[in-house]
Amino acid sequence: MNVVSLLFYAFMSTAAFGALAILFSRDVFKSAIYLLITLISVAALYALTYAEFLAVAQILIYAGGIAVLIIFGVMLTTRINGRPLSVQNKHLFSGAIVAVGLFILIIQYLPDAPVSGKNLTPDGISPFAMTVFSRYTLPFELAGILLLVALVGAAVITSHLKPKT
Amino acid sequence: MHSYHALLYLGAFLFCTGLMIVIVKRNAIMVLLGIELMLNASNLNLVAFNQQHGPSHDGQAFALFVIIVAVCEAAVGLAIILRVYRYFQTSVPDEISELKG
Predict the structure, then answer these.
(1) Is the CATH number of domain B3-91 3.40.30.10?
(2) Between chain A and chain B, how many beta carbons pairs sit less than 8 Å apart?
(3) Domain map of chain B by residue range?
(4) pLDDT tens for residues B5-25?
(5) Which of A22, A40, A57, B75 is deepest in the core (most CB within 10 A)?
(6) Beta bridge partners of residue A27, listed in sequence order
(7) Which one of A120, A140, A142 makes the best mutation probe of the B interface by having the most chain B beta carbons within 10 Å?
(8) pTM here?
(9) What ipTM was estimated for this complex?
(10) Which of B67, B80, B87, B92 is the best substitution to test chain A (most A C-beta atoms within 10 A)?
(11) Which residues contact B35 (CB under 8 A, 6 or more apart)?
């Protein structure tokens, strides 16, 4: 087993560990940190499967943006009365049944053998840039507009906060 | 086990864990964390299939758009959660049962 596959399985196990830790944790802040661990591990997996640009985008957008946003949200919503909020669980049994059942169903239908197609070669990120900026130019620009609209909308929603009297 | 296969298993595992978090947790922010986990699982599948079916990069481009839409969803969702928390003084989704503002 060479170093790359060792790293691969190490990052896979940290990603799975982070997801399970979110499930079993009762503290929202710690859950956000565990989500950060999972996101960074998934970014490392992207880098190991020749998706380097996605790895960087994952770290910049998810780990840098969403995780910080969620941690801000946690601090704004759970610490108002001074003590950390303990999250309750409900529907534990039915949730476990649905999740395990769906997992079994999915792994039943996974393709057994790797398809003998042409594997992606580690040829850098310039072919990816050519794909995004030639075939997907219009969706890319529309995604930028969507991002702008969503951020302005979020700012409008959170302004003029007033508590219910 | 082939690494492509392992990635598909990890994607399925992350998706099911995210689904269980969404069902089980009684806090809106935890539900949002579960949704982010599910989106990541789908991205992992896209990247794994793209690695197997070269030399085009369509799967990675699709994953990039999924990431962008996930950012929009998280921003608007957190804004709504903050607003609802200030208004109803709770972040438990089950206790928010009236639409009247």
Answers:
(1) no
(2) 239
(3) 3-91
(4) 888 999 999 999 999 999 998
(5) A22
(6) A86
(7) A120
(8) 0.88
(9) 0.89
(10) B67
(11) B18, B22, B73, B77
